[in-house]
């Protein structure tokens, strides 16, 4: 069984939480396409429903904790991860500028505001157990 965890910076506003979580979930679906079913799930009324296969939990942490987790997972062969930063938040529809700034900067200087991890349930639980549930 697989598991996804989104760990967000604890001081984000409600709108930022939704934005960052959405961006990260979209990216993990691109990295691991099996997170979502590749066909539609519809109800008896013909309304399409989300076809996510694995549990996803949303947790909170400090920016430094997010950076440390990202660095610890960058060589993992079993857990996929991806971060989003305050740098990304500040650049609206400026992908080329975003890409350039990311490529020339160290993670801490980009101020991580979220990370998504996806992998075997027990392993994801182990690397995220120190974080609290986002409420």
UniProtKB/TrEMBL annotation:
Superkingdom, natural source: Bacteria
Stored Gene3D superfamilies: Bit1
Protein name, entry field: Uncharacterized protein conserved in bacteria
Annotated organism of origin: Enterococcus durans
